Amino acid sequence: MSDKSIATIARLSTADAAFHQRLDALLDWEGVSDKSVQARVDDILADVKQRGDAAVIEATNRFDRMDVTHMDQLRLSAQQLQAAFDGLPDHQREALAVASERIKHYHERQKPSSWQYEEADGTVLGQKVTPLDRAGIYVPGGKAAYPSSVLMNAIPAHVAGVREIVMVVPTPDGVVNNLVLAAAHLAGVDHVFTIGGAQAIAALAYGTQSVPRVDKIVGPGNIYVATAKRAVFGQVGIDMIAGPSEIMVVSDGKTDPDWLAMDLFSQAEHDEDAQAILVSWDAEHLDAVESAIDRLLPTLEREAIAHASLSRRGALILCKDQAEAIELVNRVAPEHLELSVATPETWLDEIRHAGAIFMGRHTSEALGDYCAGPNHVLPTSGTARFSSPLGVYDFQKRSSIIHCSAEGASELGKVASVLARGESLTAHARSAEYRINPE
Amino acid sequence: MSDKSIATIARLSTADAAFHQRLDALLDWEGVSDKSVQARVDDILADVKQRGDAAVIEATNRFDRMDVTHMDQLRLSAQQLQAAFDGLPDHQREALAVASERIKHYHERQKPSSWQYEEADGTVLGQKVTPLDRAGIYVPGGKAAYPSSVLMNAIPAHVAGVREIVMVVPTPDGVVNNLVLAAAHLAGVDHVFTIGGAQAIAALAYGTQSVPRVDKIVGPGNIYVATAKRAVFGQVGIDMIAGPSEIMVVSDGKTDPDWLAMDLFSQAEHDEDAQAILVSWDAEHLDAVESAIDRLLPTLEREAIAHASLSRRGALILCKDQAEAIELVNRVAPEHLELSVATPETWLDEIRHAGAIFMGRHTSEALGDYCAGPNHVLPTSGTARFSSPLGVYDFQKRSSIIHCSAEGASELGKVASVLARGESLTAHARSAEYRINPE
């Protein structure tokens, strides 16, 4: 074990008296934006709502250091997307295509069907599933522009049958990412605007002269984007408000420590707030992983970020046994869970909360991030307790169907009448009573 | 047609030059809470988060004019719920039981299944569905205490398999509604606290010494409740932020005008902000409904409320034909849609947005509000464009399953490596590359 004073990553044990306190401190994440962010976002939202394109252009010039005078300069054509795709090196174009196909294939399985059933008296009840008319997809720009995020956000919308997919991606200093445009081409995006921040969220939520108003906005973004999404929620639908990405790996001690170290790095390299936690009941194994971390960390391109993330929010946790490991998983409800164990399928029944479960030593999170098929947009910060991966269901909604026969309405009318009068809603009661057959 | 100067309800025609403007004005609804509400809610949330039970007790004494010193005085036992149910008059107990059974039966159909599939190389992909551990249900108290809302919120949670259902219902001045308690008994609620407002939302979101922290909060409430729900969203899941209730009725001119008037009243009697709109291409029929409204309105117990609602937000709209009526429906995306026409089933394919669709002259909304089976918690204010009725799916979440075979991981590793390097995430790439078989 390395000297505690210079340890890269914290070591915890469930046997420690203060374990739960330390774990709570480690997991603590306040995603709340401060009042100054809130106020700036409110101003931008109000400005775009009122002035439309002009406000979007001004904000874009200011925040992305652009110099445009018309929205047409902030719009990419289908031809530009196609050209970006065609211009990629073969290996990148092929990898994108494979990923896209696999993601599409998986998400096809998520499509729910409308259904209905008829009762003895002829009354029909059911549920009708329809896609959204228009979805907006926010794609971060600049350094963290990820083509995989374009695929993961746009393909489920496309599979759901959304009529029009509008993507926004800022291009600070005018820098365009060709892989992002190529992915938009592949994923069936209909419109792309090179705008970002709260001004892009406002444009999508309210519509402008050029940007069509959408019904739902999905996709990750910085604190301004997250704050703006929260503010327009209700006006439009939104996906979750994402916190920093995290992984919890459970190892039975038999996985190569180098593999595990790199799996933790693959999370830690995202940003300094990312969280990577390894749990095992094998103390020597944790020592070996810690050594691997110390040995491999200096070989990373993004060493500084990974180091900051691991030292601030990472942990190697020694637990008692499998049962306690499962307890920890359900307590944390991790975004990504790697079960690096011999028979992960025997664990599955007891895992209640996790965004995505990567099973067995061969299934590293990175495979799921790019191309296994399931979505990489997952609930963070313990929200897997109540949220799901982004999916086709996020781009559809249901309508209840009620078609009473005369006989059915008569019987239901009697029940409704009693209950409505119990609530002193007598117009409800009388509306129901009109449908009762005189006998 | 009645004299315009004293008309109870507005008459619009799609042929009017200003029609779309007038419709927009009619539909306009700002659910945004002002800064003073926001500040008061923030204070209450912070106080409950920090001081727990003590803060809840103080707020309850203050806002609900109670005088309690301990949370036990704000808790109802299973025996009390049972006693409330047993003590109901027979016809009410039976009506509640019939409604409860029908709601349960319908929602059973909404239960999704976990699924998985295996690829040629042995890789398994899937989706696992699990219920929430704990759901919180907010039930408004006082005058607008609705037992039907208890059934509609708690039964889907119960059907979903939620382990623990916690209900909060304020009892201003200590007034308890026995029908509400009886419904809680019937719907399988586990804990009831007689608290409300932002303090109840805070208690559910953060947990206190007595109130268990829940994973999701559902149920309608006043502006303080709605503001508090928006604030804790992310910390816990929430259902939609509900606006005032609305109905759009489309009539082909053949439904009894008295029936239609009463159907509109059944919406308008809810509150002064409720909205009731009738659409028809038969001008004389609209005249007849207007006369029925004027004749029947004075016979309502809640005449004043219904009158205010109809005159402020109601409308009888003359349109050209069926196609234009459907266009209006999709434009408004009504919470409740009554298709009071001869063959409503032929309309269904073209209806894209509506919370619940009541088909045919016999299916009045009131039947669905209480006992048809589908949920009465529905997306308001046009949010049916992107939201669904409350359902079993609101109390469950999904986890992605990825289990790569050695061969599968090797192939996916190659693709992931290319894409990760394209995003400059080299630890991702190296984690994937470890899984590539040396050949």
TrEMBL record, chains A, B:
One GO molecular-function entry: zinc ion binding
Q: Where is the active site?
A: E335 (proton acceptor), H336 (proton acceptor)
User: What's a GO biological-process term for it?
Assistant: L-histidine biosynthetic process
Q: Where does Zn(2+) bind?
A: Q267, H270, D369, H428
Give UniProt keywords alphabetically. Answer: Amino-acid biosynthesis, Histidine biosynthesis, Metal-binding, NAD, Oxidoreductase, Zinc
Pathway annotation from the record = Amino-acid biosynthesis; L-histidine biosynthesis; L-histidine from 5-phospho-alpha-D-ribose 1-diphosphate: step 9/9
Binding residues for substrate: S245, Q267, H270, H336, D369, E423, H428
Q: What is its EC number?
A: 1.1.1.23
Note describing how the cofactor binds = Binds 1 zinc ion per subunit.
Catalytic activity, reaction form = L-histidinol + 2 NAD(+) + H2O = L-histidine + 2 NADH + 3 H(+)
Which of this chain's residues are annotated to bind NAD(+)? Y138, Q199, N222
Q: Which domain of life is it from?
A: Bacteria
- Cofactor section: Zn(2+)
Record's GO cellular component terms: cytosol
Query: Which Pfam families would you find in this protein's record?
Result: Histidinol_dh
> Would you identify the family this protein belongs to, as annotated?
Belongs to the histidinol dehydrogenase family.
Recorded hits in HAMAP family, A to Z, give:
HisD
Q: What does this protein do?
A: Catalyzes the sequential NAD-dependent oxidations of L-histidinol to L-histidinaldehyde and then to L-histidine.
**Protein name (Swiss-Prot/TrEMBL):** Histidinol dehydrogenase
Q: Which organism is it from?
A: Vreelandella nigrificans
